[in-house]
Amino acid sequence: MDIPSGFAPAGFTPGFLDHGGPYYLGPAVECIRVVGLKIMPHHINYQDAAHGGVISTFADVALSHAVYDAERPRLAPSTVTLTVNYLSGARLGDWLEARVRIDRLGGRTAYTSGGVWRGDEQIATMSGVFAFRR
Fold this sequence. Notes:
The chain has about 130 residues and is of the alpha+beta class.
């Protein structure tokens, strides 16, 4: 599967995120931010499925990016809590989209939620709390 139109490489800072991705940013739809990930060979576990840690990292990346991008100048979020509920697995070649909303953006804390989708099927739910300084 190719990368869907409307998605562009995220270009996140080098380091750990280089190993988990590559990630792609899609257009926001009605205040829902979208991050994409194509499941590649380095994401696969011994059961020929995407490792749960890949999905968890994807959730953290997508949720925190929504907070980072919520204001100008950009915020620098740190994860306080992350909850991921796995509903189904992902396989090699699957295109996943993390759809994120910011539920509350306070003075120092952001509350986020959303889901990871493979087409029309939701494969995970996610929520996170992030701390930041303005």
